[in-house]
Specification:
- The protein is an alpha/beta fold and 284 residues long.
- It has 2 domains: 197 residues, Rossmann fold, CATH 3.40.50.150; 68 residues, Helicase, Ruva Protein, domain 3, CATH 1.10.8.
- A 7-stranded mixed β-sheet has the order 4-3-2-5-6-9-7, with helices on both faces. A two-stranded antiparallel sheet has the order 1-8.
- Helix 4 links the parallel strand 3 and strand 4.
- Helix 6 packs parallel to helix 8 and helix 11 packs across helix 12.
- It is elongated.
């Protein structure tokens, strides 16, 4: 059977039917079925000119086949054993593709790619978007950049961080990577149709993080402030610092104690975290 266009809803339905596969909601299986989106992905990857590519969730091989025409090596990770047999069919002739059946959250970058930074491509399942992004950031030394499809609300909160519309997790991601949105991808670009729209976006690892303070203290400050985002900073910090020292710290770093923590910039958060480190170092 020839697979001329894996972005065709008819082809996708036929493939799944022939293998007696029903998309697994638990695994967040929504297969790309839009030629325009695929062409945008291809264009963006060609711009990066990667030698090796790691794909998160190969699915039916729709994107994988195109990646095989760009890079010398493509490692396609897929957790669903039911799709592996289909992948060997749709990727027939793509000799530079390695199919790996594995949970991506257990993927060993060093074992597969050594110390060479790799380009990552993936349509991230809605249910585990945050864990996958955290895994990527935690393994940032093994990654040059990632081109990802993810649900729009998560990406929008990341790009708005730090800020009133952002999140502590968004600050974590933006602290280590530049984030840029490429295009909107409507929910009808997938089959089956999910409940939310997506965004195609790029995550580019920074040479240096957006802070200089101790990382554990920095992110504790972030979690404390965003965990009490409706409170003034002086009150939010009471859960952590001695009340009689909060005023001193905020005066030292020039931060108004009555503003909310979500309004602080990276520079503000960094100064505050550095001051807290000094405070804890001098506390009896």
């Amino acid at each position: 059977m020839a697979y001329e266009d894996l972005t065709s809803c008819g082809t996708v339905a036929s493939l799944l039917r022939s293998a007696d596969i029903r998309p697994n909601k638990h695994l967040g299986q929504n297969f790309l079925a839009d030629r325009s989106v695929l062409e945008t992905i291809v264009s963006e990857i060609k711009r990066a000119k990667p030698d090796e590519i790691l794909e998160i969730g190969a699915g039916l091989g729709t994107v994988t086949r195109e990646l095989a025409q760009i890079a010398s090596r493509v490692v396609a990770v897929e957790v669903d054993h039911r799709l592996i047999k289909l992948l060997y069919q749709t990727l027939s002739g793509c000799e530079n593709v390695e199919i790996v059946r594995q949970d991506f959250l257990k993927f060993d970058f060093g074992h597969t790619f050594g110390d060479r930074p790799v380009t990552v491509v993936g349509n991230i399942p809605y249910r585990i978007t945050s864990p996958i992004l955290k895994y990527l950031v935690d393994h940032r030394r093994s990654i040059s950049e990632a081109l990802l499809l993810a649900q729009s609300d998560v990406v929008e909160k990341i790009t708005a961080s730090p800020g009133p519309e952002g999140t502590a997790f968004g600050v974590f991601v933006q602290a280590y990577a530049d984030v840029s949105i490429i295009r909107h991808v409507g929910k009808r670009c997938f089959m089956p149709v999910p409940t939310v729209d997506s965004l195609l976006w790029r995550l580019s690892i920074r040479d240096h993080p957006c802070f200089s303070a101790d990382s554990e203290t920095f992110f504790r400050v972030v979690r404390t402030l965003y965990g009490a985002r409706r409170k003034m900073i002086r009150r939010a910090l009471r859960t952590w610092l001695p009340q009689n020292r909060i005023k001193q710290v905020l005066e030292e770093v020039g931060i108004d104690p009555t503003v909310r923590g979500e309004t602080l910039t990276f520079e503000d958060l960094d100064r505050l975290a550095s001051a807290v480190v000094q405070l804890e170092g001098t506390s009896p």
